[in-house]
Amino acid sequence: MYDIAIIGAGPVGIFSIFQAGMLGLKSCIIDTLGFLGGQCNALYAEKPIYDIAGYPSISAEKLIENLIKQAEPFKAQYYLNQQCNSITKKDGYWEISTSKGLIKAKTIIIAAGGGTFEVRKPPIENIQDFEDISVLYHIKNKSTFKNKTVTIAGGGDSALDWAVILASGIAKKVYIVHRRNNFKAAPKTVEEINSLTENGHIELITPYQLSKLKGKEGVLHEIEVKDLDNNIKLLKSDYLLPFFGMAMNIGPINYWNLSIINKHIEVNPESMQTNLNGIYAIGDICTYPGKLKLILTGFAESARACHSAYSYINPSTPLHFEHSTTKGLPNNI
């Protein structure tokens, strides 16, 4: 029996282990992925994050490493590679049915981000023949592309961010294929793209769309692209990185009788509680007036949810607020 079951092992979920532990609450964490870190590790492990307090710049991967280390003293149980299918209210606790068994907890904190995520793939007939070899939907190690020719497809932040990173002393050549001449990305990033294009490190292929992949045994040789008039260009490339975004799917959570608005769980921002007593939602999956989808916001929401959960679990025991500098780690750690 856990005090808090945390659904979602992204940065906000992992931080909730620490927050729960500081209140003397026993927690576990559940995630569909086989590793910790959620989208931070799955999609942009090596990309720098600039708005984490105390870190002028930190990679997503390093942030997750630090959060895991911070949570270690509280010895939370990790249930990975399993999906939460349903929840059932019992006498004094919630029963969570996962794809691998049952988990009992007095409260639940949902920190599932965008839920399970599915990559939006380009409609190319034989693309599956090259996946995981020459066609990659996320980058685990940027050194993979050292002195290689890389084609990046897409016009959003992810596409342009990675184009800047790879064109700055890693890849031999970077093509950007986009169906429009304009990009939907941060103005500063677009300026960097323009500068790298002028210097010859990036070549813009616009307005064009992916058409065919040519190669053998998963190894890419050429990418065929077409414009609206069916004019064809052939790009000799070692890798294709399609960045067309993710399809958000909150899965079974849809059927838990929670108040959901546009695939986001509605909460009371004072407590982070949902419409169900003892169930809280934090991070990108929750919504309330003035909500900001930032990791740093999720950290604050985690603290609020854990304090609310403590009061729910211990209604007759007042919680005396103390700063961590005064309180320190609990004596039993």
Question: What's the topology here?
Answer:
Elements: E1 2-7, H1 11-22, E2 27-30, H2 38-43, E3 48-49, E4 58-59, H3 60-71, E5 77-79, E6 84-89, E7 94-98, E8 101-110, E9 116-119, E10 149-153, H4 157-167, E11 173-177, H5 187-198, E12 202-205, E13 209-216, E14 219-226, E15 232-236, E16 239-242, E17 246-249, E18 260-261, E19 264-266, E20 279-281, E21 286-287, H6 295-313, H7 324-327
Parallel strand pairs: 1-2, 1-8, 2-5, 8-20, 10-11, 10-16, 11-12, 19-21
Antiparallel strand pairs: 3-4, 6-7, 7-8, 9-17, 13-14, 14-15, 18-19
Task: Describe the protein.
This protein is an alpha/beta fold and 333 residues long. Helices cover 23% and strands 29% of the residues. The protein has seven helices and 21 strands. The strands form six sheets. Strands 1, 2, 5, 6, 7, 8 and 20 form a seven-stranded mixed β-sheet that branches. α1 (11-22) packs parallel to α3 (60-71), α1 runs parallel beside α6 (295-313) and α4 (157-167) packs parallel to α5 (187-198). It is elongated and about 70 Å long. The two termini are 20 Å apart. 38% of the residues are buried. The mean pLDDT is 91.
